[in-house]
Amino acid sequence: MKIGMILECQPAGPDAAVYPYIAKKLCEDLEIEKPETLVNKQRLMNEAPEVAQTLLQNGCDIVFIIWDKKPRWGEGGNCETDTAALTTALTQLGINMTQIRLCCIDEMMESWMIADSRGFMNWIRSKTNHALQNIGDHATPAEQTDPKNRIKRYLRDHFNKIKYNDYDHNLQIVKAFPDFNRTAANNSSFKYFKDSIEEICP
């Protein structure tokens, strides 16, 4: 099974490392093409359908289009509206939607990263021998808003030797998760991504 991924990040952005890593952890037999990175949400919405068509023509069995509900520039987003727009554009190109997985992340990647505290706490505890207060599971959508600042506030208050940077730290944190079951239980958009990978795992 060969999959492609279309992401809204920069070519060296954290999404391009994190989502293929998780897919391989969930299904080591997957063949994953190098992610197509479209830099921002606007470009993803405009260009992803044609990029998906190319990936399918080049031999991918399934293409994942993954974007954050809330763009980097901080404006609101709507997963239903985005999904409908992409579905219309993909269908107009004659793409079989059974080969597409549309993953709108609520509200951004770091939201599901704090949904289960184990990854973050395993990572931060690997940096020190001091006892640290647990950041706690952020188990509801309301608790998962503004996740980057939640991480930054925790580090400022409890371990200010590290200045959080998503490019440097997200993959490290994700690699510290023992599994992704609690994350999926606490963030439905991540659950859809996880379930979609497991459903196609050969």
Q: Could you characterize what this model shows?
A:
This protein is α/β, with parallel strands linked by helices and 202 residues long. The chain has two domains: 2-106 and 187-200, Rossmann fold (3-Layer(aba) Sandwich); 111-175, no CATH class. Helix content is 49%, strand content 11%. It contains nine helices and five strands. The protein has helices spanning 14-26, 41-57, 79-92, 109-113, 117-125, 147-158, 166-175, 181-186, 188-200, and strands at residues 2-7, 31-32, 36-37, 62-68, 100-105. Strands 1, 2, 3, 4 and 5 form a five-stranded parallel sheet that branches. The termini are close together.
Features:
202 residues, alpha/beta, Rossmann fold, 2 domains, five-stranded parallel β-sheet, 9 helices, globular
List the helices and strands and how they pair.
Blueprint: E1 2-7, H1 14-26, E2 31-32, E3 36-37, H2 41-57, E4 62-68, H3 79-92, E5 100-105, H4 109-113, H5 117-125, H6 147-158, H7 166-175, H8 181-186, H9 188-200
Parallel strand pairs: 1-2, 1-3, 1-4, 4-5
Sheet/helix structural class = alpha/beta
Number of strands: 5
Oligomerization status of the protein chains = single chain
Q: Give the count of structural domains.
A: 2
Number of helices: 9
Radius of gyration: 17 Å
Percent range for β-strand residues: 5-15%
Please give the CATH class of the largest domain: Alpha Beta
Write down the CATH topology of the largest domain: Rossmann fold
Q: Biggest sheet, open or closed, and with what strands and sense?
A: 5 strands, parallel
As residue ranges, the low-confidence spans are: none
Tell me the span between the first and last alpha carbons.
Answer: 7 Å
CATH superfamily of the largest domain: Lumazine/riboflavin synthase
Outline: globular
Mean pLDDT: 96
Q: Please give the share of residues in helix.
A: 40-55%
Protein name: DUF4276 family protein
Organism: Ilyomonas limi
